[in-house]
Amino acid sequence: MSNPTFEAGDITLEQVREFVWEIPQEGDMRAPARVLASETLLEEIREDKTLEQITNTTHLPGITNYAICMPDGHQGYGFPVGGVGALDAENGCISPGAVGYDINCGVRMMRTNLTYDELQGREEELVDSLFANIPSGLGGGGVVEAGVDTVDEILARGVDWALENGHAVEDDLLHCEDEGMREGANPEKVSQKAKDRGKNQIGSLGSGNHFLEVQRVTDIFDDEVGEAYGLEADQIVVLIHCGSRGLGHQTCNDYLRKIEQQHQGLLNQLPDKELAAAPAGSQLAEDYYGAMNAAINFAWVNRQLIMHRTRRVFERVFDRSWEAMDMHLLYDVAHNIAKKETHTVAGDERDLYVHRKGATRAFPAGHPEVPAAYRDVGQPVIIPGSMGAGSYVLRGGEHSMDLTFGSTAHGAGRLMSRTRAKNEFWGGDVQDELEEQQQIYVKAQSGATVAEEAPGVYKDVDEVVRVSDALGIGDKVARTFPVCNIKG
Amino acid sequence: MGFELRDHTADVAVAATGGSLEAVFAAVADGLTACSTDEVPNAGKRFSLAVAAESREALLFDYLDELIYLRDVRAELPVDHRVESISGPTVESANGDDPTADPPWEVTATARGVPLAELDAREVKAVTYSEMRLENVADGWEAYVVFDI
C-alpha cells in the first residue's frame, strides 16, 4: 500500500509518517524537502509560496538529507520562514539569504519571583513605564549611543562587553547560547554603512513583529523540567523579541551584492536570486561567516541591554531591587542564524552550516553545547505566540538531532498578509478588545503595527507546539499568557 | 502609472509602473515610503543621492538599499521621490573588461527627508531580490519588489 499523499497545486507531498511529509527529489533538486506539519497546518502552509520556497532551497549545493519546513512555516523571501537547511561546510555553501536580513533575530525570557496577583492593578503603570524607557519604533534611538569603536567591541565580544560596562551580570552569560559571544566574529568584515546604522540602535526593539511582553505562567506540563528552568504556575516572566537592527539588515544586503558580483556561476544555478550563496571555502564564505557572527553578537547585546533596562523599570514600579525580584535570564535563543555544527549523517560525523531561518535550535538533554545549567534536561526553547494567545517554553526533544538537525519551530507563524490585516483590523479596536476581554495591556508607537500583529493574523500556536511535541523535537514544558505588551 | 502595495504573508510587495526608467524607480521608492507610513506630513528638506551599480536591476536594488540606509543614519524618512536621471553603460565601458572600472549604471535622485520624530512610521528592514522584476513593456517600465518588514 502506498503512503497517503497531500496535493498542493503542482506539488505532491508524500506522508513519511505522522506529521512528516516529503516532497520527493526531482529535476535540479539536490535532496528531497520535508514539511513537518499536521494536515490542518498543511492546509495553511499550501496557501502561499512556502512549499515552492522550501523546494527551491534543496537546490543549494551541499544540502544534506533534506531541506525542512517547520510546523510554523510560511512564505518568506528565498528561504521560507520556518526553514532549516544543513549545508556541507566543506563542499557546500553558506547563504546570507537563507539566514535572512535580521541576523540573530531571536527571543529571550527572563524569570521573576513576582506572581500575577502582585502585578494585577499595576498593569497600566508597568506598560507605560516600559514603553517610556525601552526604545522602540523607527528612529527611537537605543539604550546606549555609541561611537564606532564601541560598536567594534560589541561585534567582537558580544555580551562580555555588556558585562564589562555594567549592563549584565555573570549569570546572564551562563544562560545564553554560546555564553553570549560567538567565536569567529570579525568586526572588520562588517561594513562601515552597517556600523553607522547600528550605532544609534544599540538596545532597541525596532518595529514589525518585535515586542517586549510581560507574561504570567498559566500551565506547567512537565514539573521536573519546569523546576530546572525555575518556572511555576502564576509566576511573572518577561519575553523579549528583537534582532540585530539595521546593522544586521545591512550586513545581509552587503553580502548578497558581493555574491552577485563574485559568484555569478553558483547564483545562476539557483531558482531564486535571494538564495544567493558563497561556496564553502571561498574568501567570501569566510568573510560572511565572520560578519554574521559579529552581527549575532550585536543582537545578543541588543536583547541584553533591553533586558537590563527592564530590570530597572521593574525596580521603579515595584520599589525593590531586581535581585530581590529574582529577575534572571532563563535563556536566549536565535531564530535567524547559520552555525557550523557537527552532526551525524549516515553514521559519519560531518561539519555543516546549519541554516535556521525562523527556526530555533533545540538540542536535547546531554548535548555538550547545552549550557551546564540545563544539560540534564535539554535546552530551553521559547516559542512566542501572538498578542492574544499564549507563548510556550519547550525543551529540546530527544529526536531533534535525527529529524531536524537539532531544530524546532520559532513561533505561531503568520497566516494573513500585513496589507490584509490592516484592512481587517484597526489598531485601536484590537488594543481595546485585548484590554477589556483578556486584561492584556498593549502600547505601541504605531496603530498600524498593532493591526498588522493582531492575534487573528497568526496560525494557532497550540497546533504548532502539538506537532513539535508529538515529533519529539521540542517537548512542552510550560505555557505563558500575555499581561503587558509594548511594540514599535 | 504609479505603484500598488501587494499582499505577501510576512512582508510587503510593491508593484510599480512608469513611462520611463526614472519614473518607475521613483514609483517603487514611493511604494517603499507607503510601506513605512500611511500619512506623509508636509515637513522636511530635500536632499540628493547618487548610486552606481553594475546592472539595471542591481541599480534599483542599491538605490532602494541606499534610501533605507539614509533613513537610519539621517533619522529621516525619505518621501516624495524624484529620479533626475539614470544613465547606462557607454559603448566603451560596455566593451571594457576592466573589473575595477566604475559600475556603468548610475542614478541621481532627490527625496524629502521627514524627521522620524514627526511621523507614525514603521520600519522596513530591507529591500530583497526575491521575485524582483524590472521589465521594459509597451508603454514604459514595470517593476515588482518585495520588502522585508
UniProtKB/TrEMBL annotation, chain A:
* Cofactor(s), names only, from the UniProt record: Mn(2+)
Q: Which residues bind Mn(2+) 2?
A: H241, H335
Location of the active site = H410 (gmp-histidine intermediate)
Select a single GO molecular function from the record's annotations and give it.
RNA ligase (ATP) activity
Alphabetically sorted, this entry's keywords are: GTP-binding, Ligase, Manganese, Metal-binding, Nucleotide-binding
Record function comment: Essential for tRNA splicing and maturation. Acts by directly joining spliced tRNA halves to mature-sized tRNAs. Joins RNA with 2',3'-cyclic-phosphate or 3'-phosphate ends to RNA with 5'-hydroxy ends.
Q: What is this protein called?
A: tRNA-splicing ligase RtcB
Q: Which organism is it from?
A: Natrialba asiatica (strain ATCC 700177 / DSM 12278 / JCM 9576 / FERM P-10747 / NBRC 102637 / 172P1)
Q: What is the lineage of its organism?
A: Archaea, Methanobacteriati, Methanobacteriota, Stenosarchaea group, Halobacteria
Question: Which gene holds the coding sequence for this protein?
Answer: rtcB
From TrEMBL, chain B:
* Top-rank taxon, per record: Archaea
Domain Archease: start-end pairs: 3-149
Entry annotated with the keyword Metal-binding:
yes
Pfam families reported in the protein's UniProt record: Archease
Keyword tags: Calcium, Metal-binding, tRNA processing
Q: SUPFAM superfamilies, from UniProt?
A: MTH1598-like
Checking InterPro entries in the record gives: Archease, Archease_dom, Archease_dom_sf
Biological process terms from the Gene Ontology for this record are: tRNA processing
Metal-binding is among the record's keywords:
yes
> Which stretches are transmembrane?
none
GO-annotated molecular function: metal ion binding
The record's annotation in PANTHER family points to:
ARCHEASE, PROTEIN ARCHEASE
**Family indicated by similarity:** Belongs to the archease family.
What's the protein name? Archease domain-containing protein
The record lists the organism as: Natrialba asiatica (strain ATCC 700177 / DSM 12278 / JCM 9576 / FERM P-10747 / NBRC 102637 / 172P1)
